[in-house]
Amino acid sequence: MNRISREDIIHRAKLSEKAERYLDMTQAMKAVSETGIDLSNDERNLFSISYKHAVGKKRSAWRVMTSIEQTFEGDAMWKYERAQIYREKIQSEIEELCNEVIHTIDNHLYPVAQSEESRVFYSKMKADYFRYQAEVVGDPERRRKIVSSADRLYKAAMETAESVMNASHPIRLGLMLNYSVFLYEVKAATRRAINTAKEAFDGALEEFETGILTTEAYKDSTIILQLLKDNVKMWSTTDGRPIDLLPES
């Protein structure tokens, strides 16, 4: 892919985002990712945003259909079976997209990443998509392996992040946010989730007064700090759904 065609594909990805055609956006960014060239920060964020929205819509649909399926239990069998079939179809689509992200990172993005920051970003993203799979997979053995993969990737990414990034760095903060959500939602480890989120919040807050962050990073980190704070409050008082990292961050 030459420079002109690369720019054209990225432009198409941006147009797809404006039109909210996220599956088109994923395919454009997948093509850019397969060129063997390390993505810029902006390209990396476009890649992340495209799949976050595409999978996010299907995750929401899966939750709705799961709820509907449960309401049909004990009702007319055909209604229950129709809901089950449709829920399984959505599940298959989620798993397909998640596997596409994981494959692209493993085979095209991580091998050419030039910085530890990019490697942390991709490891976190890969862990996130294992987490999304864990949300929908019913088979206990498959789910156990998926959860184990996510946990290992989150921990490896955190170890690297702690050695190369300040506690207030938005990528490190986002990693801690999403790992805490993983602990709460997938592993049902509420106390560990709260402690992880609090530790990330407190560590970043101590650095904020030093002025080490750029204006853009400060903005991103502030948003994530609020999400951490909101989740800790919610986990401590209710059974509400936690908020994970906004794709724009």
Write structural notes for this entry.
The protein has helices at 3-18, 22-33, 41-71, 77-109, 116-136, 140-164, 170-185, 190-208, 215-237. Helix 4 packs antiparallel against helix 5 (116-136). It has a domain at 1-112: 14-3-3 domain (Delta-Endotoxin, domain 1, Up-down Bundle), CATH 1.20.190.20. It is globular. By secondary structure, it is an all-alpha fold.
Topology diagram in text:
Elements: H1 3-18, H2 22-33, H3 41-71, H4 77-109, H5 116-136, H6 140-164, H7 170-185, H8 190-208, H9 215-237
Helix pairs in contact: 1-2, 2-3, 3-4, 3-5, 4-5, 5-6, 5-7, 6-7, 7-8, 7-9, 8-9
| Cα-to-Cα separation, first versus last residue | 28 Å
> Could you report the average pLDDT, rounded to the nearest whole number?
90
State Rg. Answer: 19 Å
Instruction: Write the H/E string, N to C.
Output: HHHHHHHHH
- Please estimate the helix content: over 70%
CATH fold naming of the domain at 1-112: Delta-Endotoxin, domain 1
Report the count of strand segments. 0
Q: State the shape.
A: globular
Class based on secondary structure composition and strand pairing = mainly alpha
> What fraction of the residues are assigned to beta strands by DSSP?
under 5%
CATH class label of the domain at 1-112:
Mainly Alpha
Quick one: CATH superfamily of the domain at 1-112? 14-3-3 domain
